[in-house]
Structures are given as C-alpha cells and as structure tokens.
Design a protein that fits this description.
Two copies of one chain form a homodimer.
Chain A (H helix, E strand, L loop, with lengths): L16 H12 L9 E3 L4 H16 L3 E4 L5 E5 L8 E7 L2 E5 L5 H16 L8 E6 L12 H6 L3 H7 L10 H7 L19 E9 L4 H5 L3 E7 L1 E10 L16 H18 L6 E10 L9 E10 L2 H21 L3 E10 L3 E2 L2 H14 L3 E6 L4 H5 L5 E6 L15 H19 L2
Helix pairs in contact in A: 1-3, 1-12, 3-12, 8-9, 10-12
Bound molecules: manganese (II) ion (MN) (4 copies).
The site of one manganese (II) ion has 3 residues of chain A, from loops.
Chain lengths: 428, 428
C-alpha cells in the first residue's frame, strides 16, 4: 500500500491512489487528440469540460470556489484564522498538442487529493489551504506561457498585450475567453493581480519531466531553483519561386535559412559548455508550403533555457548574430527577431524548503535537492509568495508526449509530501 | 497593337488581348487567398467555379464540350475531316497556395482566344482543334502532379493509387471528386485513358517561369525538351520530449535531422556541377509543433529536377545516403524515404517544332529553342502524341507567387503563335 512510508513507519496520511488514477484517466478523456495522447488547449471545449470537472471535485470536498476574470480557479478550505495569508498549491490542466496526462494534472488532482487526505485525517487548518488551477500554463494558443500566474503576479505588460493578442486563427484573447464563458472587460484584468500578502506560501507538486529521480531511485525531489526560460520568434523572407524554373544561384530560399538557424541554435547551446543550457526549435513553418515552390517565408520559434541567466542571454545573442549572418549569406530578409519573453530564474524560499525537508523526513522518504529545468507557474508565484516545488519521478523523464507516465506509488508519495508540507505551514 | 508582328508585317490573326486580360483577372477572383495571390486547389469550391467559367467560354465559342471521369475538360471545334486525329492544346487552371494568375491559365484562356482568333479570321479546320483543361496539374491536394494528363496517358499505376489516395484531411480522392460533382466508379478511371491516335499533335502555351526570354528580349521560346522531375517524401522520428527538461546529450531531435537533410539536398545539387540540376525542400513539417516540445517527428517533401535523368537520379541517391547517415548520427528513425515519382524527361516532336518555327517566321517573331525546367501536362501528353510547347516571357522569371506577370503583348504573341501552329497542323 502506497500510504506506508519507507522504513515501515505507518502514516496517518492515507492517499487513495486508485481514486487519483481514476480522476487522471477521466480528465485525460477530455482531449482533442486520440488516447493515449492528450490535447487540451486554452478555452477550447475540452478545456471548458476539464474546468467543470475540477470545480466539481472542489465542491465535493466542500471547498469554497472562486474564478477570476481569465479563469484561474481557486478552491479554498477556510482555516480557523482566515485573516492570515493562506497556504496555496496548484498547477495546470491545459496540455500541448499530442502530449500526456500527468504534466500539470498531478499538481491539480494531487493537490485536491492532499486536501482530501488531510480532511480524512481529521486535520484542522489554521491558515486557510487553497488549491489553484492556473489558466494556460502552456503557451500553445496565444504564445504566452504561464498566462494565469504571470497575470496574478501583477504583469501590467501582460494586461496591455492581452487586449490585442490573437491566436493563429485570428481569434482574439477576449473573444476566446468569451467562448469559454469568461466575459472579460478590460478593467477586469487588473483584478486578477494578487497582493504580496495573499499567500504565506505556495507549493507546486509536479512530475520531474527529467530522468534523474528515476535513474537514481529517489522518490522525491525538492526544487531549490527554476531555470530561466526565454522564447524567440524569427521570420525570414526571400523571393520564393518555382522549384523547377529558378536555378540554384538565383535562389534566396527562406526555408534553408531557417534550417541553418535551427542548427545554429544547437551549435551555440552546445558551445556554452554547460550541461544546463538547452535550446530547441519546436516550431518551423514554411510558406507557401508546396513541394514545387521554393519557400518564400519561414517562421521559427526558439526556446532557450538555463539555470544561469547570463549564460542563457549569451546564447540568445549568438543566435541573433547567426540569424543576421544567415540573412546576409543567403540574401534573405530577417523580417523579425523578437524576444517574446526572457524571464529571470526563481529561487525557492528557505522556509518552504525547510517545511518540505521536514515532511520528507517525517514520511521517511529519501529526497534530492534539485533544479527545475522546465518552468512552471511557480516561477511567477515566486514573485508574490515564498515558493517551493515537489518533484516525483516519471518514466524515462518523458514529458510532452503520450508516453509520459508516473506510477501510483510515486504520486501517492508526492501527495503525502504536499499534504504534510501544507499542514505544517498552515499551523505556522 | 499587339497583333502586328515584328518587322511591320500585318497579320490576319487579331488577338483581343484586352478580353484575354479581363478573363485572366476574372478567373483569378476564384481564389481561396486574397488578391493578388491565387489559391485554387483541386475540387475545391473555387476550382468548381473556375471549371464552370471555362466551360462557359467553350460553349460561347460553339465548341462541343465533354468532361471525363476525373474532370479533364475538352472543347472541340470539329474539323471537316472529323475522323482524323485532332490537333490539341491546353493547360491547367489549378493554382498552388498563394501563387499567381498566369501559370497554366495563359495556356487555357490563351488557347480559347486562339480558337476565337481563328474563327474570326474565317479559318476552317480540316483536323479538329481541341482545347483541354487538365485536372490537377499541381500536386497540392493529393501529392500527384499532372493527375489528369498522367491518367490520359494511360497510367495503370495511377488508377490503382487513386482508389486509395487521401488528402491531408483524410478525404479520399473519390469523395473529393464527388463533392465537385464527379461521381467516379472505379471502372470509370480506365475510360480516361486516350488512344495513341487520338491526337495528331499536342501544343501547350505557357509562361516561361524562368528569366531567360525576358533577359534576352526574345518574345517566343520553342521548347525542345522538358526536364525530368522527381519527388520524394521523408519522415524522421525521435523521442521528442520537454524542451526544458531533456538535456542536449539525451536528445534525438527529428526537427534538426530534417534541417540537416534540407541543407544536404542543396549541397548534393550544387555538387552535381551542372546549372541544370535543381533541388528544393518546399515542405518541412514538425510534430507536435509546439515551442516547448522537442520535435518527435518531421516530414519533408523534396523536389529534384534535371534535364539529364541519370544526373538527377545520382542526386536522389546521395540524398538517400544522407538521410540514412543523419538518422544514424542523430539516433532518429528514418521511417520513410519514398520516391513518389521519378518521371523520365520528354522531347518535343520534330514535326511540331517545325510547325512552331514556321509560325514564328510567318509572324516575324524572334524565337529561341530552349529547355523547360518546369514540367507540364505536356510531359505526359508526349507519351501519347507528338508534343511541343510555346513559351512567352514573364516578369523576372517569377512563378508560383503573387508577383507572377506576363504582359498583354507577350500573351498576344503567344496566342498568335499557338493559333498559327494549330492551323498549320490542322491542314496536314
Ligand atoms: Mn507542460
Ligand atoms: Mn507543467
Ligand atoms: Mn505550376
Ligand atoms: Mn503550369
């Protein structure tokens, strides 16, 4: 039974991991791509179904439920000293195209199970406990990652850009929200901002999305810092033309410029010399996209991350220089080289790390202090609250694809860790 | 007036080039992308509108109109010796996404104007004259170029593949044809085949799609051979994963494999040492296509052409070897390397070249004997009929993009050439 800690010590925190697995599987059925893949994009019908599902569980647990203007969902178990800052947890349930069912979801359904565990154990919170389902952690639809938490953390820049943001089908953010049942008036967006004293602590439970815990056989990761992500959009333009008729010396092929830049991203990342630097070209599109047409335009989206902000920014500068060089050599125009976001890294708070280490020891769970290379809503929650994260192992480190998997035992350990950490902080 | 040949000799063949331009502009309005671009894909609503428009002009000219099972449209001016093989001309009106309004269209509307010119001049054909609008010269929808002419030329292989071919939205060829009003029974496809004696000659009028005639100031090109096209589909597959969490040494990025192969195509083409070898990656798609996901799959479509079949096939072999090498180096699977078509080049028939040269001299038009580097329905008509092609200059050699342009004067010269060549062959 997964509710027995290692070392044979019985714990009063009995996780119903079968129920948790059932909920994960049920949520995965709200998908726009066939199982085992999951596709759940912001404000789509499936996203709306998932939101209804999460609110349903919150209500079953007797939590008081509220939603803000953009659809961040809050379920609160009011503590005996309700005027104190709450202890919050949460994650996301949106899923990029053809991904898996654990990313984000473990941190939402697992958090609700942690509340349920505490309720069943007879625990009475002093500080209120709150579960948050964040809107659009993934950048899929509007190119903005951690939309909900970024806004909660008070980004005025985001308020302004949301007023004019459109998706790839030219649907505005406001219209998309409306179709999901959120009627947004421009002044509402500021109401999403949270005060610095709203939360005493924020803890996110998440699969590692990397192979380390599984490889080392350690059940729990305690995150000390979140790597700093940056994303860049690039557009090249050339003359295009007929694939048969335009001879090679007369070409300025925007597609080959994009191919060169993609390989240059890899080269500059590897040249950083650090294992912690990663760079990815996840999007590369050609226009017009016909076999007998030389590409006249290309569009790339590049993701660069590091735990060292300066080293990451050096890579971005080199990629920019390569884009300029390629545009000269291939006589294509560099129409755009736009840094969409370039966030600083975040450190976990010592007080939250202490609480997590205390919980791990209480539960007899071995743990590893580690870095999060993927970013999370916690990156933005750290701006307004002491923050910490709990990682659990996942199969081969797979994430963002259908093979993503975490065992019931590992999830139960994570839920126990989260429950005990929250309980401890609630009483401080 | 464009109906005066060079050298000041008056000609009885008076081309109404304003009317021709009006028709070209009107046809361009049937498009799924905004002007000045044209997008007209096989069996789409716009394609159906264009078909109706062409049949309308044929009927106005008193031609007897027939359509075959896949929608090749024939308008015949019956000659005094109707039992003889006819003299045919024609081209296509389908247009790849975001292309221009002259490719193909000049050879259909120009052919109808040539018929009109001959009618107005009082000419009486002995052999029947026939204008053909071919179905789907462009491979856009089903990946099959020159679908209509390839089938007319008797490809049993194409009959079999059309029964199971689907487009990118999984719509079958048969269902797509049905939606455009062509109900195809499998046995009908063989009825599209034409006999070897159906035509005494076939001549296609087309913009050059290259810069030579414009640069040299020569109004007419007489095509002696059509370069041999080949097209290839390639799929790579890797493990994908999260763009933040999977470290660089653990990656096998299918997108970077595609980028390397695209650059390898260019390298092998340039290494052939011949100006006549061209290679293009017009399609490069990544899956899942999210900024924070390492591509787990990539799909490329490659076009390689040459006037020398062996040299072209050598390039294809080298590209295949590169694909295998890249898959090994990057530890991705080469799921597919499929040669979709690998057609032999075609030579124009001496008798048709003679008739075209005679017409040019009669009209006082300077001409150049040249190669067609783009392929055309003529490539397949050459399998069942003596074939020839007439080229006219186009602006900067542009084609397959909105800037594609041919002057009214150059089109009028082309129409006169076509009319006189057909008239001469009709009386042989
Ligand atoms: Mn994710
Ligand atoms: Mn996540
Ligand atoms: Mn074309
Ligand atoms: Mn054409």
């Amino acid at each position: 039974a997964s509710d027995d800690g290692e070392g044979g010590r019985a714990s009063p925190l009995r996780v119903d991991s079968d129920s948790l697995q059932r909920q994960i599987d049920e949520l995965a059925s709200f998908s726009d791509s066939p199982a085992p893949s999951v596709t759940r994009v912001l404000y789509s019908d499936k996203d709306v179904q998932a939101r209804r599902y999460i609110k349903g569980i919150m209500k079953q647990l007797g939590l008081s439920v509220r939603e803000d203007a953009v659809g961040n969902i809050f379920g609160r178990w009011v503590g005996s000293e309700a005027e104190l800052g709450a202890v919050a947890t949460g994650s996301h349930v949106d899923a990029i195209p053809f991904s898996g069912k654990y990313d984000g979801v473990v941190g939402v359904l697992g958090a609700l199970e942690a509340i349920s565990v505490l309720q069943r154990s007879g625990f009475q919170p002093k500080r209120s406990l709150e579960v948050i389902m964040f809107t659009s952690e993934e950048p899929t639809r509007f190119g903005i990652s951690c939309l909900g938490s970024r806004l909660m953390a008070g980004s005025e820049e985001l308020v302004q850009s949301l007023k004019r943001t459109v998706d790839n089908h030219n649907v505005s953010f406001v219209d998309a929200a409306d179709s999901a049942g959120y009627k947004i008036h421009p002044e509402d967006l500021h109401n999403v901002f949270l005060n610095q004293d709203a939360y005493f602590a924020f803890i996110e439970l998440h699969i590692e999305q990397g192979p380390i815990l599984e490889k080392e056989g350690i059940p729990i990761g305690i995150v000390t810092a979140i790597a700093a992500p940056a994303s860049i959009k690039v557009e090249f333009e050339g003359n295009g033309g007929h694939a048969g008729a335009v001879l090679m010396p007369a070409r300025n092929d925007a597609g080959l410029a994009a191919a060169e830049l993609a390989l240059a991203v890899e080269k500059h990342v590897l040249e950083s010399g650090s294992i912690d630097t990663v760079g990815t070209v996840g999007i590369l599109q050609l226009h017009p996209g016909a076999i007998n047409s030389i590409p006249s335009k290309s569009h790339l989206e590049i993701d660069v991350r590091d735990i060292d902000e300066k080293r990451r920014n050096d890579v971005i500068e080199k990629v920019h220089k390569s884009a300029i060089d390629i545009s000269k050599t291939r006589r294509v125009d560099l129409l755009e080289f736009k840094i969409i976001n370039q966030d600083p890294p975040a450190l976990s708070d010592k007080s939250v790390i202490n609480a997590m280490e205390f919980a791990a020891k209480q539960l007899g769970l071995e743990y590893k202090l580690m870095i999060s290379r993927a970013y999370h809503d916690s990156l933005f929650m750290a701006r307004i609250s002491p923050m910490g994260m709990i990682f659990i192992p996942c199969y081969k480190g797979y994430s963002h694809k259908p093979e993503e998997y975490a065992s019931q035992e590992d999830m139960a350990n994570g839920v126990q860790m989260l429950a005990l950490t929250m309980a401890k902080l609630s009483l401080e």
